[in-house]
Amino acid sequence: MEKIASSFRDPSGFVFRENGILYRKINACYKRTFNLMIQSGLYQELLDNNLIIPHKVISDDIIQPTEIFISYPYEWSFEQYKDAALATLHIQQIALKYDMTLKDATPYNIQFYKGHPVLIDTLSFEIFKEKPWIAYNQFCKMFLAPLSLMTYKDQRLSCLMKDFIDGIPLDLCAKLLPLKSRLNIGLLLNIFSHSKSQQKYADNRNINLKQIVITKKQLDNIITSLIDLVNSFKVTKENTEWGDYYSNTNYTNESFEMKLNTVKDYIKRIKPVKVWDLGGNTNVFSNIAIKEGAEVVSFDIDYMAVAKSYKKTKQEHIEQLLPLVLDLTNPSPGIGWANEERETLISRAKQVDCVMCLALIHHLAISNNLPFGHIAKYFAQLSNNLIIEFVDKQDSQVQKLLFSREDIFNQYTQQNFEKVFSDYFEIKDKQSIKYSYRTLYLMSVKK
Amino acid sequence: MYKKILFCVFTLLFSAKLSWGYLDPSSGSMMLQAVLAVVASVYVVIKIFWSKIKSWFVWKK
Predict the structure, then answer these.
(1) CA–CA separation, A137 and A123 (whole Å)
(2) DSSP A247
(3) Which chain A residues contact residue B40 at CB under 8 A?
(4) I need a surface site. Which of A143, A161, A300, A352 has the fewest CB within 10 A?
């Protein structure tokens, strides 16, 4: 039995892996509450509303939750983060109908399953008592604070969640938010006043917290106000540098068609179950893998490109695609206790059987000065199969990159690319794309 | 002795205000909820009342 590194804080139970399968153990102290959650109908209502991860019952104290790809809040676009917050609040409102309440309100308990956010911590409920909501502080630090900073300042501020594993401190959030955010009464109460209140009553032994009574109706009203507050957050900037990549590049219709068909052919040869699309942008090529039956996690450095993809998966009910934000030159680190609570990107690549790296190599090698050897070595660790596009220096996109740089990239040639990648991969196929300076490769890791 | 007293006074007057929020953030959150309970209830009542007025105007049209 291998306990999952992040599963140690909850006395109700823990998650473990045995023979490669993920299980959740329910400790004796929580069994009664868990049974109540199931028998009352709460679990079924959450399942019917696609708000909780389905599980199989293995025994009276072990369940097997459906295993899904784990992503973290600092990898989500604004829209995904907002939906995760709304899902948490809706779950809490439904729980209150059954006289239950969430013990936690953390984005690490929400994951994307078939395109929408679901609660993965099935043991996160307790019986409702007329007292303040225990998860309120956590909700403000881990959802409201990052969402308000993304709304009023910049989407990229969700990266603060990497440094603050328990959520952005409210006093820091209050300092970073602009003056005009105080006009939002919801933020005035839940961030600014909340921060002051925390400082005022911190370590104050004179107050009797047991006297504070919050009825079910009052808590429901608080949740309603939080839902309206989160719904009011909007990011309106639609187009960024990469938001519209495929409209602004130099593929002719014919060369683009050829690229699509070659990628399709390569995917059919590999028959992958799980694909990572690096630099996926608007997921034109992820969709090819999806049509061939794969589940795809698509990564892009641009928040708006990811947001556009996510909106599309929602509108078109695409269940097999999860778009995420990622800077491949600085991928998600391991954070938390012993750097193990939240995994590195590469730790989550264990079941990936194909990586696509299209229209990306020049950004890694030229914009970021990465030698081909470093890139090949990393990709070989991610997956056994690689579909990669080499973009020659004569390509206009590369010329743009070199416009304001000294051309120190003597090693950036197709010949050298093939030579270096051959140290790690066997090149199974290559196709030059007509009317372009680009070549597609199908590679597999050398054994 | 006087130097020690002066040092303590000086430190109390001019040191940055310590935040005990990390040691105990929960009390403040709980106290605020007592206020939020009232504010949120008023908010929900106004919201229901406002949507009734709006629907009345739509009906009238």
Answers:
(1) 19
(2) G
(3) 218, 221-222, 224-225
(4) A352
Contact between B40 and A224 under an 8 Å Cβ cutoff? The reply is yes
pLDDT in tens, A144-180: 999 999 999 999 999 999 999 999 999 999 999 999 9
- Test A140 with B29 for CB contact under 8 angstroms: yes
If pLDDT is split at 50, 70 and 90, which confidence band does B23 have? low
Q: Cβ separation of A201 and B35 shorter than 8 Å? A: no
The nearest alpha carbon in chain A to B20 belongs to: A202
Q: Given this model, what pLDDT does residue A246 score? A: 46
Give per-residue pLDDT as tens, A32-57.
999 999 999 999 999 999 999 999 99
- Nearest by CB to A202, from B24, B41, B44: name it: B24
Interface test with B, best of A198, A210, A225 (most B CBs within 10 A): A198
Check if the beta carbon of residue A167 is closer than 8 Å to that of residue A141. Answer: yes
Q: Shortest CB distance from B19 goes to which of A171, A193, A219?
A: A171
Cβ neighbours, 10 Å, residue A181: 20
Q: B12 vs A206, which has greater pLDDT? A: A206
Say if residue A245's pLDDT is above 80.
Answer: no
Report which of residues A246 and A5 the model is more confident about. A5
Distance CA A444, CA A73 (A): 32
Chain B neighbors of A195, CB-CB under 8 A: 21
Gap from B54 CA to chain A (nearest CA, Å) = 18
DSSP state string for A56-91: EEEETTEEEEPP-----GGGS-HHHHHHHHHHHHHH
Sort out which chain A residues have CB atoms less than 8 A from B50's CB and list them: none
Residues linked to residue A22 through DSSP beta bridges, in sequence order: A17
Average confidence score pLDDT of chain A: 92
Q: Is the pLDDT of residue A17 over 70?
A: yes
Angstrom distances, CA of residue B11 to CA of A84, A200, A204, A249, B16: 45, 20, 22, 63, 9
Burial B2-20 (b: 16+ CB within 10 A, else e): eeeeeeeeeeeeeeeeeeb
Determine the residue among B22, B31, B42 to mutate to test chain A binding: the one whose Cβ has the most chain A Cβ atoms within 10 Å: B31
Query: In Å, how far is A128's CA from the nearest CA of chain B?
Result: 15
Strands A385-391 and A55-59: unpaired
Of A96, A107, A28, A39, which is closest to residue A62 (Cα–Cα)?
A28
pLDDT attached to residue A206: 67
Q: Which residue has the tokens 């739509």?
A: B58
Interface of B with A in 1-60 (CB under 8 A): 19-37, 39-41, 43-44, 47
Nearest to A395 by CA among A423, A429, A369, A433: A433
pLDDT digits (tens, 9 = 90+) for A322-365: 999 999 999 999 999 999 999 999 999 988 999 999 999 999 99
